């Protein structure tokens, strides 16, 4: 059982992130399955509730679950890898409070007010009279609080990387190393036969630093847009409607996708690459293979991620053809290369250390690589002028590409990190059941891939992603398969939660957040 | 002429094969790294060879579709294409305002659809009777939303909004909105009228 009193503040705050992340994930898959029931014409929820969930679902999944787990892991890893103290423990605590509060408000805007402008927020739908201004205000405030949490995280991480409390180092070499420029200079030196320099920053820190740059830019756009929403909501609540025509819908779409795409094609891929590199070195105990190339590739990925948003606008006829071809097709295709480098470097690092034991972190790491190996090419296919014309907004996009990447690729990578960090965060506590961990792996992998492939097939058969088809049997077979595989993922979740909770105990779980009185501790002890 | 059914039919096969290859290769890899002895690779993947392969695939997909899929060329040059028929469709308050005379097209005709949204963003997609998609585009307020398409098969198509525009958007479905008649049939319709 977990002895919370023996945890240091960093362990405790990281565990708080993990617990909240897993709870949000539970909410996300529960609501996902409720939506799934409507797709097999077993309507659990009315249409307005379906669309309200659809608007909140990605926010809860991406920010409430994935970001939360990533933030928790990085709050622990950055000081640990740099052998420094965290810049501010209070800001770390504030981060999870803000992100949790923000996501909860976004969710409540849908649950209470049926606000359903979708996470893409295509102008002017979010501010249209279709929705209650109170719903709009709740969504906007939630989003602003959420993004404030993201800013606090970024500030705290940057400050931890650069702060000089523990030792004095010149700033430029630190920045050069954090940006990965030393990866390029070392490659150049190697070509010229010169002595390479040992980089100051560990490679995972480089990935975290660079991913966080995209995180900040993304948060700037989303928070900025939310301020505009709040402005409209304020006037609407006071009985005045502002003409939304002041903002061009296509320009808005470009700005919004530039920001939002920094999540999908920026920080996720960069954070994931960094996590793979960290796990590969932790699992093998060896140095990363081609570390300089990996450092350089992370910088290339950062620049690539700023220039790919047009692949979301290939079906927008007002978007200029040059933008579609250069940004939408060609630069986007380079994501195949940058993610291919991460796959190559990770697999080679592990390969060189063979034979090794198949541990849960390694198993989940390979699952994560599999998810991206299937999801990234699916994205490249739809980022093509010809294919986009017949795939855009279908279930292919959200199934074979997005859910494959998020649930299988990112999800399994995060679980790999969670299983690897679990002993470090709990002072060598062991998980109760290896069988449950194995079940979690197989049920999540088969469920995730099966669901994404079923949705992909529905998309190729013409099923749209944001539409319900009441009484229409055209896509029943694919959706029944998707529901079956989705149920497997739910079972995987419960197996994992049972395993974790029975390992740390209910008392330990509660005491991660609040100190319990002795009387209650004694009552809970037998349950744990 | 190749249509979306041909392209997506082939893609289903490729997708299944690709998924099986990825599973097999990672499965073999996982098996090899955990053997008690140090397994020697059957073949080596050089880094620059891998990079070259990825660039070839990433760029090659676009080059191939540009040359094989006809609607890519139509799309990029649509400003200079002279259409046989043109339809203007207004969209407002979750409704497509289609031409009153209906839309009957002669097989082989190149048709331009031009849509204008008066409020939020919608989509414009054509679907066959079995629900498969012929094509789609976005209908963004304040932008020019036009597409040219050559109809080379006699059939009846439905229109559906393909972009989420609020809960009411799901109701934007017009069954059998476009009829593509064989050349002879259209001639007889014109004679009767």
Keywords summarizing the entry:
heterodimer, A: 528 residues, mainly alpha, B: 193 residues, Immunoglobulin-like, five-stranded mixed β-sheet, four-stranded mixed β-sheet, 36% helix
Question: Which secondary structure elements does this structure contain, and how are they paired or packed?
Answer:
The complex is a heterodimer of chains A (528) and B (193).
Chain A: H1 9-39, H2 47-82, H3 89-113, H4 133-162, H5 171-179, H6 181-191, H7 203-237, H8 249-284, H9 291-305, H10 321-352, H11 360-382, H12 385-391, H13 395-425, H14 434-460, H15 476-504, H16 506-511, H17 518-524
Helix pairs in contact in A: 1-2, 1-3, 1-15, 2-3, 2-4, 2-13, 3-4, 4-7, 6-9, 7-8, 7-9, 8-9, 8-10, 8-13, 9-10, 10-11, 11-13, 11-14, 13-14, 14-15
Chain B: H1 4-33, H2 47-68, H3 70-76, E1 85-92, E2 95-97, E3 103-106, E4 110-117, E5 122-127, E6 133-139, E7 145-150, E8 155-160, E9 173-181, H4 183-192
Parallel strand pairs in B: 1-4, 3-9
Antiparallel strand pairs in B: 1-2, 4-7, 5-6, 5-8, 8-9
Brief account:
The complex is a heterodimer of chains A (528) and B (193). Chain A has a domain at 368-528.
Polypeptide structure, described:
The complex is a heterodimer of chains A (528) and B (193). Chain A has a domain at 368-528. Chain A is globular. In chain A, helix 2 (47-82) runs antiparallel to helix 3 and helix 6 (181-191) crosses helix 9. Chain A has helices at 9-39, 47-82, 89-113, 133-162, 171-179, 181-191, 203-237, 249-284, 291-305, 321-352, 360-382, 385-391, 395-425, 434-460, 476-504, 506-511, 518-524. Chain A is mainly α. Chain B has 193 residues and is α+β, with helices and mostly antiparallel strands. Chain B folds into 2 domains: 4-68; 83-192, Sandwich (Immunoglobulin-like). Helix content of chain B is 36%, strand content 30%. Chain B is built from 4 helices and 9 strands, in the order αααβββββββββα. Chain B has a 5-stranded mixed beta sheet. In chain B, strands 2-1-4-7 form a 4-stranded mixed beta sheet. In chain B, a hairpin with a 2-residue loop joins strand 1 and strand 2. The model of chain B has no long low-confidence stretch (mean pLDDT 94). Chains A and B meet through helix 2, helix 8, helix 10, helix 11 and helix 12 of A and helix 1, helix 2, helix 3, strand 5 and strand 6 of B.
């Amino acid at each position: 059982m977990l002895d919370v009193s023996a945890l240091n503040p960093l362990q405790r705050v990281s565990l708080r992130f993990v617990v909240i992340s897993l709870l949000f994930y539970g909410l996300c898959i529960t609501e996902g399955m409720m939506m799934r029931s409507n797709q097999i014409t077993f309507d659990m929820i009315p249409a307005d509730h379906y669309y309200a969930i659809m608007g909140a679902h990605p926010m809860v999944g991406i920010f409430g679950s994935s970001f939360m787990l990533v933030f928790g892991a990085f709050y622990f890893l950055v000081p640990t890898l740099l052998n420094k103290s965290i810049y501010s423990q209070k800001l770390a605590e504030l981060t999870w409070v803000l992100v949790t509060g923000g996501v909860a408000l976004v969710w409540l805007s849908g649950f209470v007010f049926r606000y359903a402008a979708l996470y893409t927020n295509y102008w002017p739908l979010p501010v249209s009279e279709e929705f209650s201004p109170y719903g709009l205000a709740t969504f906007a405030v939630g989003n602003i609080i959420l993004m404030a949490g993201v800013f606090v995280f970024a500030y705290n991480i940057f400050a931890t990387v650069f702060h000089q409390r523990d030792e004095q180092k010149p700033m430029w070499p630190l920045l050069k190393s954090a940006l990965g420029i030393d990866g390029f200079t070392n490659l150049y030196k190697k070509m010229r036969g010169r002595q390479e320099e040992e980089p100051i920053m560990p490679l995972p820190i480089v990935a975290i630093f660079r991913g966080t740059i995209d995180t900040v830019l993304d948060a700037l756009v989303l928070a900025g847009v939310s301020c505009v929403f709040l402005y409209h909501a304020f006037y609407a609540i006071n009985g005045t409607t502002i003409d939304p025509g002041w903002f061009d819908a296509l320009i808005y779409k470009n700005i919004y996708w530039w920001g939002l795409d920094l999540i999908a094609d920026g920080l996720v891929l960069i954070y994931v690459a960094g996590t793979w590199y960290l796990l590969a070195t932790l699992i093998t105990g060896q140095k990363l293979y081609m570390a300089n190339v990996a450092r350089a590739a992370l910088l290339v990925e950062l620049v690539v991620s700023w220039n790919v948003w047009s692949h979301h606008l290939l079906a927008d006829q007002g978007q200029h053809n040059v933008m579609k071809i250069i940004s939408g097709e060609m630069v986007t295709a380079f994501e195949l290369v940058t993610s291919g480098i991460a796959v190559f470097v990770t697999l080679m690092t592990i390969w060189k250390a063979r034979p090794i034991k198949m541990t849960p972190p390694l198993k989940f790491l390979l699952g994560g690589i599999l998810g991206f190996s299937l999801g990234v090419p699916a994205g490249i296919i739809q980022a093509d002028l010809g294919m986009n014309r017949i795939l855009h907004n279908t279930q292919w996009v959200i199934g074979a590409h997005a859910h494959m990447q998020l649930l299988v690729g990112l999800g399994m990578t995060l679980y790999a990190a969670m299983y690897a960090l679990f002993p470090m965060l709990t002072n060598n506590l062991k998980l109760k059941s290896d069988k449950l961990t194995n079940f979690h792996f197989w049920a999540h992998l088969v469920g995730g891939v099966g669901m994404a492939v079923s949705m992909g097939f529905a998309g190729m058969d013409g099923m749209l992603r944001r539409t319900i088809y009441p009484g229409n049997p055209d896509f029943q077979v694919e959706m029944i398969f998707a529901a079956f595989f989705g149920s497997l993922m739910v079972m995987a979740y419960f197996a994992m939660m049972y395993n974790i909770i029975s390992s740390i105990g209910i008392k330990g779980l509660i005491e991660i957040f609040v100190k319990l009185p002795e009387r209650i501790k004694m009552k809970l002890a037998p349950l744990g | 002429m190749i249509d979306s059914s041909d392209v997506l039919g082939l893609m289903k096969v490729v997708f299944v094969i690709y998924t099986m290859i990825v599973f097999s290769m990672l499965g073999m890899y996982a098996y090899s790294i955990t053997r008690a002895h140090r397994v020697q690779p059957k073949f080596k993947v050089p880094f620059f060879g891998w990079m070259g392969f990825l660039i070839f695939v990433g760029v090659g997909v676009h080059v191939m579709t540009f040359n094989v899929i006809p609607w890519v060329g139509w799309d990029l040059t649509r400003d200079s294409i002279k259409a046989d028929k043109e339809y203007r469709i207004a969209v407002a308050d979750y409704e497509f305002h289609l031409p009153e005379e209906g839309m009957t097209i002669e097989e082989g005709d190149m048709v331009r659809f031009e849509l204008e949204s008066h409020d939020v963003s919608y989509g414009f997609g054509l679907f066959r009777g079995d629900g498969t998609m012929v094509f789609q585009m976005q209908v963004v307020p304040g932008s020019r939303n036009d597409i040219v398409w050559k109809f080379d098969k006699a059939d009846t198509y439905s229109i559906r909004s393909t972009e989420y525009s609020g809960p009411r958007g799901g109701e934007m479905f017009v069954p059998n909105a476009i009829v593509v008649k064989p050349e002879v049939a259209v001639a007889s319709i014109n004679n009767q009228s």
